[in-house]
């Protein structure tokens, strides 16, 4: 939709996402991923400008991703690796992991150091940095820790930091290091306030990371513009989804996981050219 030719590998092959009461399927392991990649190499079609990774449940698979990214970067030094370090989230103020805990050291020690862009939520940023976030200043310090681990762009996609607009808003923060022609480094930091939607969606992190990849490609020198387009598109998708879900569920009824599936096809125009409804503040 945003102008990229895509090759996709499913890290899991599930009947449905895990927001449902039941699911069946398989988790791809390192050997199976390597076999797929070897097939690409044998046909010389392993030429990429970007790599994007998200939900993973197997630590050997994750380690193999790192090996593949390193090899791809050797043949294309300009390749950008975008990593959504999907590990867990906070509910009612308490954080918990929904992937095996042995993935954390792999993310921390192997994945983040080779990533160019990472998109953790607050809980994941705390896990990776080993620091808690209670204020905007602490969040900025955590992003500096993550920069020092490797990535030039860090976006904390959601947090429970207080908003001046009240409890109906979520805070997202971004930080991008850029080298000037004279060799010095400048860091752009932004803050965004997004209206909460009273529902549990699955796939929002995937959509956020994919759109951020596309918009940072189109606006490489402005994290502010890239994030405004990404978050505004997210707003349109989620608002459309909750309207449709509530209409299907009926008045006073809680929408089911099936009814809360993101309305992606219906939101094609909003993804391609989002009306900016969330503006970023430069810090």
From TrEMBL:
It is an enzyme of class 2 (transferase). It catalyses: pyridoxine + ATP = pyridoxine 5'-phosphate + ADP + H(+); pyridoxal + ATP = pyridoxal 5'-phosphate + ADP + H(+); pyridoxamine + ATP = pyridoxamine 5'-phosphate + ADP + H(+). It is found in: Cytoplasm, Cytosol. Its main location: cytoplasm. Its cofactor is Mg(2+); Zn(2+). GO terms for molecular function: ATP binding; lithium ion binding; magnesium ion binding; potassium ion binding; protein homodimerization activity; pyridoxal kinase activity; pyridoxal phosphate binding; sodium ion binding. GO terms for biological process: pyridoxal 5'-phosphate salvage; pyridoxal metabolic process; pyridoxamine metabolic process. Pathway: Cofactor metabolism; pyridoxal 5'-phosphate salvage; pyridoxine 5'-phosphate from pyridoxine: step 1/1; Cofactor metabolism; pyridoxal 5'-phosphate salvage; pyridoxamine 5'-phosphate from pyridoxamine: step 1/1; Cofactor metabolism; pyridoxal 5'-phosphate salvage; pyridoxal 5'-phosphate from pyridoxal: step 1/1. Homodimer. Catalyzes the phosphorylation of the dietary vitamin B6 vitamers pyridoxal (PL), pyridoxine (PN) and pyridoxamine (PM) to form pyridoxal 5'-phosphate (PLP), pyridoxine 5'-phosphate (PNP) and pyridoxamine 5'-phosphate (PMP), respectively. PLP is the active form of vitamin B6, and acts as a cofactor for over 140 different enzymatic reactions. This is Pyridoxal kinase. The gene is PDXK.
């Amino acid at each position: 939709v945003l102008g990229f030719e895509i090759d996709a590998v499913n890290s899991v092959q599930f009947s449905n996402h895990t927001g449902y009461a039941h699911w069946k399927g398989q988790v791809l392991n390192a050997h199976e991923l390597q076999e797929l990649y070897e097939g690409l190499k044998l046909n010389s079609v392993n030429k990429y400008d970007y790599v994007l990774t998200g939900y993973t449940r197997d630590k050997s698979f994750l380690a193999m991703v790192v090996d593949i990214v390193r090899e791809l970067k050797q043949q294309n030094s300009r390749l950008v690796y975008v990593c959504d370090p999907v590990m867990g989230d906070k509910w009612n103020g308490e954080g918990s992991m929904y992937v095996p805990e042995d993935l954390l050291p792999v993310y921390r020690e192997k994945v983040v150091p080779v990533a160019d862009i990472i998109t953790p939520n607050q809980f994941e940023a705390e896990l990776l940095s080993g620091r808690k976030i209670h204020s905007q200043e602490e969040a900025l310090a955590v992003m500096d820790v993550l920069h020092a681990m490797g990535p030039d762009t860090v976006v904390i996609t959601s947090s429970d930091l207080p908003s001046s607009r009240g409890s109906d808003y979520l805070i997202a923060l971004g930080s991008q290091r850029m080298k000037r022609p004279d060799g010095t480094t400048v860091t752009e930091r932004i803050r965004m306030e997004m209206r909460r939607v009273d529902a549990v969606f699955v796939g929002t992190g995937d959509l956020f990371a994919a759109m951020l990849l596309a918009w940072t490609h189109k606006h490489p020198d402005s994290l502010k513009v890239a994030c405004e387009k990404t978050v505004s598109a997210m707003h349109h998708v989620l608002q459309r989804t909750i309207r449709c879900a509530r209409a299907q569920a009926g008045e006073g009824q809680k929408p089911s996981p099936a009814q809360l599936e993101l309305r992606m096809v219906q939101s094609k125009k909003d993804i391609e050219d989002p009306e900016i409804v969330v503006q970023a503040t430069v810090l």
